[in-house]
Design a protein that fits this description.
Number of helices: 2
Largest sheet: 7 strands, antiparallel
Strand order of the largest sheet: 1-2-7-3-4-5-6
Radius of gyration: 14 Å
């Protein structure tokens, strides 16, 4: 069991800047991410993750699932009319792409 200090070190706040995940996540919302190795080792089906697809790409929030036949990762956005992206899952697991799993979302009220 991780210590409280280890848990706190793995938490990270991310400010949403894009519209791709609206209406679930809107620009200026804050997302609390778990960046621990255990959170990045496997995909919780249909969970929201901060991902980096290519080394030079900026991180983005996406809803993830795993194809049960191929093991590929399926990255989806909430925006209507957008086709999910499919990327091969590396043999060592998805942590190559996953930067953190969303735990909580906070939005401006005023």
């Amino acid at each position: 069991t991780p210590s409280l200090a280890e848990v706190l070190e793995s938490l990270y706040l991310w400010n949403v800047t894009e519209n791709d995940m609206a209406p679930a996540l809107k620009p200026e919302d804050w997302v609390l991410l778990d960046t621990s190795l255990s959170a990045r080792a496997t995909v919780q089906e249909h969970g929201v993750y901060l991902v980096r697809i290519r080394p030079d790409d900026p991180p983005v929030l996406r809803r993830l699932a795993t194809d049960p036949l191929s093991g590929d990762l399926i990255l989806a956005v909430e925006a209507a009319g957008r086709v999910p992206m499919r990327i091969p899952c590396p043999p060592k697991g998805p942590s190559k792409y996953l930067l953190g799993r969303a735990l909580w979302v906070g939005a401006r009220v005023i």
